[in-house]
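Regression report. Comparing outputs from two consecutive submissions.

Submission 1:
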Amino acid sequence: MKRDMNLVRAIVLALKDYPAGFPPQAFGVAGYSKEVVGYHIHLTREAGLVRGADVTTHGGNGPEAIATGLTWSL
């Protein structure tokens, strides 16, 4: 899957807007599938931009993660 830096930016900007610090369980970005967002969260997690959990499953289309918040790396 090709990296989409606009999506990475949208994920980080969306996460910063949650006042409680934790995004909702149904976190998503309009215009992108759950799998694509999950993959890009995985990438941002590997880069140290977000905190999160790996939710990759056997038989999935690729690595996926859920975000739990931002890090100080920004």
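Submission 2:
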Amino acid sequence: MGNSFGKLYKLMSFGESHGKVIGGVIDGCPSNIEIDFDYIQDKLDRRKPGQSDITTDRKEDDKLEILSGVFENKTLGTPLAFIVKNKSYDSSTYKKYKDFYRPSHADFTYQKKYNIRDYRGGGRSSARETISRVVAGSIAEIILRKYNIEIFSYVSKIYDFSLDLNCCNIDKESIEKNILRFPDNSKVDEIISFLKKVKSKGDSVGGEITTVVKGLKPGIGEPVFDKLNAKLANALMSINAAKFFKLGFQDKDISASLGSEVNDEIISTDGTTKTNYSGGIQGGISNGNDLIFTIGFKPVSSIKIKQNMINSEGIRKEVKIDGKHDPCVVPRAVPIVESMTSMVILDYIFINNSKTI
């Protein structure tokens, strides 16, 4: 049904935007992993609404509750179940227009697929669902520490404000020094001012998130249909509002380049090259270089501007939808991208380990 992700490290998630809880069950988590609850909560706090003036006004604690699979702060190897309670929401703003299909939302498609839908904030199609991904991904990251793998993401573009720094020169510590998670402070004030104006008008903008995976050994990935880059694209394109996946450090349009311009150099004995247009993957398998990729996000579809909408009876009407929405979802999506990446990498390491004698 599309609510489970992974093969050996597997998440099944549940819950709706305005339901009682968002939760999940992790199957395949190894035993005796010490859970860093502060780390997981920090990830949830980076994702949660109401962080600043440039995010949605919805206020949520997003406090994690573990229901099973952990004893004395260590995993048991059994299914790990968890929930996060929804506390602060107002469904009344949605009831008035429950029969209308909001433009670029999943309202119409969910209705056609299930012949019923939860109109409160988008129900299951809401980005609130990504809480479960962040929890499972955070635990995956904790396990990946044992493999000396580091994963971090940052905002590399908002609207037409682009990061000038090469991803190889990013100071990881600078990412969380501003509310945009944009590691170039010289542009931050200008972008924040712009986003406040966008929010005041009830509009939205898109952007991009770049991810770097360090320490991944060569040989991780599967041939043909289960290529590492294909699974990463699948995972990351499943995030709400994600619209494109771009592999490698691309300082030029490789589709409009010569092979002599974008072929990576031969990998050295320490697994490094001076260029990384391949993004650390060749033939769908990691080559020992840093994994580098970028995800593009569209402007949030939930805007407070009058738009033409069609209701369930096919009647067109100009409607203004109220609610609490982000003018740009990209800063809050950073921990989600990190989490989905962590689950993919850990799952493939487990798959790789299962094939050795």
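Expected: both submissions complete independently.
Actual: both completed, but the second showed a warning that disappeared on reload.
Relevant detail on submission 2: The two ends are 34 Å apart (CA to CA).
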